[in-house]
Amino acid sequence: MKLAEPELAAKARWVISTQLIISVIVAAVFLFKDTWQSVAALYGGFASICITTLLLWGIKRATEAAKENPGKSMRILYVGAVQRFLLVLGLLAMGIALFKLNPIAMCVGFALAQLSYLIGSRFKGA
Fold first, then answer.
1. What is this structure's pTM?
2. Is residue 96 assigned to a domain?
3. What residue numbers bound the domain in which 39 lies?
4. Among 43, 59, 56, CA closest to 12
5. Does residue 109 lie within any of the structural domains?
6. Domain count of the chain?
7. Residue 1 confidence class, pLDDT cut points 50, 70, 90
8. At what angle do helices 35-66 and 4-31 cross, to 10 degrees?
């Protein structure tokens, strides 16, 4: 199992870097329209990077737990899915309600960062 850990760490850095780059590009595009829309797009990308980081942390914990108890490993993954869902809801709601960010720009930033997560995770493995 030790051999897979450096590969997972390298893939995680690649995916998060891809998300960060796409988030900055999306924010730069929105910057032509309005500064606050650019900030909202960056915030959406930040939310996506947060859930990716939480997913990677959960996978690491589940991998360690699987050595002793596979059932505990599955519970960690299921609880992690609920945590990520609630984190996304909380961060996006906070961005709209508390920070008064543009919902469209924020959702576009989030969606494209999530899409880059999907693409980044597929191409790094090839």
1. 0.88
2. yes
3. 8-125
4. 56
5. yes
6. 1
7. very low
8. 170
